[in-house]
Amino acid sequence: MSTELLQRYQDVLQRIHKACQQAERPPESVALLAVSKTKPVEDIELIAQQGQTSFGENYVQEALQKIALHPELDWHFIGPIQSNKTKPIAEHFNWVHSIDRLKIARRLSDQRPADKSPLNVLLEVNISGEQSKAGFQPQELMQAAAEIAQLPNLNLRGLMAIPQAVTDFESQRIPFAKMRSLLESLQNALPDCQLDTLSMGMSGDLEAAILEGATMVRIGTDIFGARDYSQS
User: N or C: which end of the chain has fewer CB within 10 A?
Assistant: First the structure.
C-alpha cells in the first residue's frame, strides 16, 4: 500500500510539472496541497518524508489530532467554517482557504493567538454561481477583500474556488480564467496586500487550473486514493 501511495504522489508531481511546462511556467510557481482529510497520519508521514510539507484538512477535530502529532507541517483548513469552530482553526492552522463571509474573517482575526504570525487567508469565490456552494459572489469580492485586508491578525493572500465540475478541458479553463482576472483586479485595488495565491484545481482539472494561473492545487484522491468518510 505504501508503494502505491508513493507512486501516486510522484505521478501527481509529474502531472504538475508537465502542466507547468505546457503553460510555460516554472514548476516551482505551483505548490501542491495534499488533501489528507479522512486519511491516517501514517499516510501523511509517508509523503512528508518525500518532502511534502503542506496538507489540507476539512474536519477540525480530525485535523487537530494530526496537527498535535506534526506541528512542524504547514496545515491548511479548506472546509466549510462554522462559527463555533473558528477558535481552534485560528489557533492551530497556518492557512484558511474557505473564508466565505465577513463574520468568519472577523472571528478568525479576533481569535488568532497573539504569539502567532497573522493567519494566511484566502477568500472563497462562488465562481460558477451554484446555489449549493458557499463563497462570495464575484461582485461582492472587492468590498469584502478591502474590509478583510484591514483585520489585524489576518494576512489576505488571495482567492480560492471550486468550479462546477465539467470534463471538457476548454470548459474547465473558463472559470479559472475568471478567477485569475478577479485576483488581478484585487492586486490593482489593494497594492499593499500580499495577494499572490490562487488556490484552484483538483484531481480532475489541475491542468486547466495551472494553464490559467493557479499557484496552488489541492489534490486528495489522486494521491491518497478514495476517502473513507466513516473515519471522519
Answer: N
CB atoms < 10 A from the CB of 230, how many?
6
Question: Residue 97 is which amino acid?
Answer: H
What is the C-alpha separation between 20 and 24, in angstroms, rounded? 6
Nearest to 154 by CA among 189, 121, 126, 190: 121
> Three-state SS for 27?
helix
Q: Of the candidates 71, 74, 69, 30, which has an alpha carbon nearest to the alpha carbon of residue 51?
A: 74
This prediction's pTM? 0.95
In this structure, are strands 95-99 and 216-219 parallel, antiparallel, or unpaired?
Answer: unpaired
Q: What is the pLDDT along the chain (232 residues), one digit of tens a residue?
A: 689 999 999 999 999 999 999 999 999 999 999 999 999 999 999 999 999 999 999 999 999 999 999 999 999 999 999 999 999 999 999 999 999 999 999 999 999 999 999 999 999 999 987 888 889 999 999 999 999 999 999 999 999 999 999 999 999 999 999 999 999 999 999 999 999 999 999 999 999 999 999 999 999 999 999 876 655 4
Cell readout for 103 is 463574520
| DSSP notation for 135-168 | SB-GGGHHHHHHHHTT-TTEEEEEEE--PPP---
